[in-house]
């Protein structure tokens, strides 16, 4: 028994002298003994187990996050689709027609042109003792112009100084939106722009223009009753080399429904030939350059704009109108 206790004491003393990097020691009296595993070595041997558990937890968390992101993305797609469908089915033109916009309604223009033609007929026959005033809510801004069919009195200047300089008659037909009863169709035709479509919302105006410019004498001129901004209007299909808006849609939208100006620009862009062919949008308006610049910047910030100003020219002797090539 004493020998066994002495042997174990020697064994414990030898084990205490083992360094961590030693793999084995010699037992006393020539015997060999294996180093007993310590607590730290067991943790090192089993260290891979927490890594597997962590990996599984991370995979489960990532899978949950991916599912959550997928649900959010799908919800965003549904909301975007709903908004687009609502926009396409209602149409911006219907929204602004419901607003407090008098000139956005066909009835307003019917009243306006009935008054205009009554005044002209009375003036031509000499039966008007006093000049009939426009209907309530209407403002007449001819100034001192002699020809009251030519708003701003600047059609000749527009064709000679702007259209003939910045537009190519061989590129494609001309589209005039809101033609009224101005002399612009004849001036364009005489300047070499023989193919042209002139639109107006008022049937009585188009009837008068067709009588003034019969097809046999003015080949290539067409006049149509059409609301250029209305939903469901025939798409122009990118076929016009020049679009002209002279004291028309831009001005009265600017006055009464400026939120619809991006819709107008979209319609004009759809009417013009692709930009690579260098078509032109000629705008004649009361807005001065600084005012138009602010309007275009506002449109670009809010909805984006497909146009920029390439040329600016004042028109007429009164300094009322400005022409812009976009």
Give a verbal description of the structure:
- With 326 residues, the chain is an alpha/beta fold.
- It contains 11 helices and 9 strands.
- The protein has helices spanning 2-16, 39-45, 48-90, 92-98, 106-125, 155-166, 184-190, 203-212, 249-256, 261-271, 289-302, and strands spanning 24-26, 32-34, 174-177, 196-200, 221-225, 242-246, 280-285, 311-315, 321-325.
- A 7-stranded mixed sheet has the order 5-4-3-6-7-9-8, sandwiched between helices.
- A hairpin with a 5-residue loop joins strand 8 (311-315) and strand 9.
- Residues 23-37, 41-48, 87-98 and 142-146 have low confidence and may be disordered.
Order of helices and strands: HEEHHHHHEHEHEEHHEHEE
Distance between the termini: 114 Å
Estimated structural class: alpha/beta
As a percent range, the share of helical residues equals 40-55%
Q: How does the major sheet shape up?
A: 7 strands, mixed
Shape: rod-shaped
């Amino acid at each position: 028994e004493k020998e066994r206790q002495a042997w174990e004491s020697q064994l414990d003393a030898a084990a205490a002298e083992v360094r961590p990097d030693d793999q084995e020691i010699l037992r006393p009296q020539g015997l060999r003994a294996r180093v007993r595993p310590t607590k730290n070595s067991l943790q090192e041997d089993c260290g891979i187990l927490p890594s597997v558990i962590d990996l599984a937890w991370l995979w489960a968390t990532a899978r949950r996050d991916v599912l959550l992101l997928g649900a959010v993305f799908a919800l965003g797609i549904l909301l975007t689709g709903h908004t687009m469908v609502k926009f396409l089915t209602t149409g911006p033109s219907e929204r602004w027609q419901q607003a407090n916009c008098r000139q956005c309604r066909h009835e307003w223009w019917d009243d306006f042109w009935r008054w205009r033609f009554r005044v002209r007929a009375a003036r031509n026959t000499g039966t008007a003792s006093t000049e009939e005033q426009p209907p309530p809510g209407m403002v007449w801004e001819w100034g001192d112009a002699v020809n009251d069919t030519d708003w701003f009195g600047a059609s000749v200047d527009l064709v000679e100084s702007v259209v003939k300089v910045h537009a190519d008659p061989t590129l494609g037909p001309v589209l005039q939106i809101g033609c009224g009863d101005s002399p612009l169709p004849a001036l364009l035709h005489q300047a070499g722009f023989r193919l042209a479509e002139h639109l107006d919302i008022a049937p009585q105006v188009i009837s008068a223009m067709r009588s003034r410019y019969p097809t046999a004498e003015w080949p290539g001129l067409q006049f149509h009753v059409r609301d250029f901004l209305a939903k469901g209007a025939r798409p122009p299909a990118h076929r016009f080399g020049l679009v002209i808006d002279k004291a028309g849609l831009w001005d009265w939208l600017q006055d009464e429904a400026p939120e619809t100006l991006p819709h107008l620009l979209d319609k004009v862009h759809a009417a013009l030939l692709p930009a690579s062919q260098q078509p032109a949008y000629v705008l004649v308006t009361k807005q001065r350059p600084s005012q138009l610049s602010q309007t275009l910047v506002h449109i670009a910030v809010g909805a984006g704009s497909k146009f920029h100003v390439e040329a600016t020219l004042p028109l007429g002797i009164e300094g009322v109108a400005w022409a812009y090539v976009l």
